[in-house]
Automatic annotation (TrEMBL):
Keywords: Methyltransferase, RNA-binding, S-adenosyl-L-methionine, Transferase
PANTHER family: NOP2 YEAST -RELATED NOL1/NOP2/FMU SUN DOMAIN-CONTAINING, RIBOSOMAL RNA SMALL SUBUNIT METHYLTRANSFERASE B-RELATED
Active site, UniProt feature: C410 (nucleophile)
Skewed-composition ranges (Basic residues): 1-11
Residue ranges of every copy of the SAM-dependent MTase RsmB/NOP-type domain listed in the record: 187-458
Family in the record: Belongs to the class I-like SAM-binding methyltransferase superfamily. RsmB/NOP family.
Chain segments carrying region Disordered: 1-26
Binding positions for S-adenosyl-L-methionine per the UniProt entry: C288, A289, G290, P291, G292, G293, K294, E313, D340, D357
Annotated source species: Nocardioides malaquae
Name recorded for this polypeptide: rRNA cytosine-C5-methyltransferase
Taxonomy, superkingdom: Bacteria
Length: 458
């Protein structure tokens, strides 16, 4: 081995055990997943939007990218259950947020992924050392060893016993806040579904959705997307599911002739197109247009009638997203404007059709945005209802007598759906409701979109 002093005299530095270079190298996929959790927690980012940036930053593709995506998304989706399990393993439940993120990622690998226990524990300890410091590594090791000593089913029986409090059990077992479980249970019954479907609805929220494409009519034929590898859903005439592969290799998507859009959103746009309008039918309005998927489909539908869509969005950065999203819509677009939908720049009676896809709690889209369940509160719903009523009133004033408005939300919550429509109808004698539907992820394979078609009368 030789004398350390002799090595120093020869110009070769003695090894330093605590140098960063000597630390175990953390797997880039796990680093990427940790970065996503941090962005969601610290920056209020949406996982599905920040993931592509993080994957590119770490140079991840193929199986490594898929691993990081499942690790991050699954951990966020199941963090309520995982926190209950982690807390059951602690004598002092209070943890630094960064340490809890490391533990959540480790628990997901142990209980939900095909990762050997020793690998899940070892890489989590390395991640804690790299991102937090040496202090919590012993705690991370001890907690994950305890977690790995039992199966997921055994932990569920311990932290989520199925007793008299059915909603309390479902809240922990399906990883939803209790208030969300209560509101979704009320929504099922209020929209005419049996309350016994609640467990299926909550379970559907925890299934990663398939990528759904939209073939914008007049710009691309469904057959072209089928030839590229997509499969029609059999419900919306323009909806296809994508089985996998690089979407950037599909010319219609790159050129904007097709897009990625949930089938529920497509059916909302189709509801506006399907309504019968007598007389002039030239001016359509998308009142809350961001990020632009519905505007692009509406523009394609409008172009087939010789009509044009004006897309309005309150936030300028989202207006720019809309402008990019409708870049291929051509003759179907009248333009994109930035403006407050409750204080319109246009005169009353300007439009023949209007869509109000109102800002909402997003509780119908938890499959796509699992972090929303942890970010929203019951108070948010109360505040949003006021805005939703104002936006629907603005849209009804914006259409001419005989014109139609479709009010939509990606939430099934009664206060945001039928409650808003019924309240606005009760205050007006010049509006009638012609149709209403509620979609469900566990029944329709799409987000829980609500839509009501209202007609402005003379």
């Amino acid at each position: 081995m030789g004398d350390p002093a002799r090595r120093r005299r020869s110009g070769r530095p003695a090894p330093q055990r605590n140098r960063p270079a000597d630390r175990p190298r953390v797997d880039p996929s796990r680093l990427a997943a940790w970065d996503v959790l941090r962005a969601v927690r610290v920056e209020d980012a949406y996982a599905n939007l920040v993931l592509p940036q993080v994957l590119e930053k770490h140079g991840l593709t193929g199986r490594d990218a898929a691993f990081a995506t499942e690790l991050a998304s699954g951990t966020i989706r199941w963090q309520g259950l995982y926190d209950a399990i982690i807390d059951a393993c602690l004598t002092r439940p209070r943890l630094e947020a960064k340490v809890r993120d490391v533990l959540r990622l480790g628990v997901h690998q142990v209980l939900a992924m095909r990762v050997p226990d020793h690998a899940a524990i070892g890489t989590s300890v390395d991640l804690a050392r790299d991102r937090v410091g040496t202090g919590p590594t012993g705690l991370v090791n001890a907690v994950l060893r305890k977690v790995s000593s039992r199966t997921r089913e055994e932990w569920l029986a311990d932290v989520a016993p199925d007793g008299k409090d059915r909603h309390g059990h479902l809240a922990v077992a399906t990883s939803h806040p209790r208030w969300v479980v209560d509101l979704l249970g009320e929504a099922l019954v209020g929209h005419g579904r049996p309350g016994s479907e609640l467990a299926d609805l909550l379970a559907a929220d925890n299934v990663s959705p398939q990528v759904t494409l939209v073939a914008r009519p007049g710009f691309v034929e469904v057959e072209e997307l089928v030839e590229a590898g997509a499969e029609p859903t059999g419900r919306s005439p323009y909806a296809l599911t994508w089985g996998g592969g690089d979407l950037s290799t599909v010319p219609a998507l790159v050129q904007g002739r097709a897009g990625v859009q949930d089938e529920g959103s497509q059916r909302v746009a189709l509801a506006l197109d399907a309504a019968v309008v007598g007389g002039r039918d030239e001016r359509w309005l998308d009142l809350c247009a961001g990020p632009g998927g519905k505007s692009a489909l509406l523009a394609a539908l409008a172009a087939g009638r010789g009509a044009k869509v004006l897309a309005n969005e309150r936030q300028h950065h989202r207006s720019r997203l809309v402008a990019r999203g409708v870049r291929a819509a051509g003759a179907g677009m009248a333009g994109v404007v930035t403006g407050d939908g409750t204080r319109p720049a246009w005169r009353p009676g300007t439009f023949d059709r209007a869509l109000v896809d109102a800002p909402c709690s997003g509780l119908g889209a938890l499959r796509r945005r699992p972090e929303s369940r942890w970010r929203r509160t019951a108070t948010d719903v109360d505040d949003l209802v006021v805005l939703q009523r104002d936006l629907l009133t603005t849209a009804l004033d914006a259409v001419r007598p005989g014109g139609v408005v479709v009010y939509a939300t990606c939430s099934p919550v009664l206060a945001e759906t039928s409650g808003v429509v019924d309240a606005v109808l009760a205050g007006r004698d010049d509006v009638v409701e012609e149709d209403r539907f509620q979609l469900w992820p566990h029944l329709d394979g799409c987000d829980a979109m609500f839509a009501a078609t209202l007609r402005r009368m003379p």
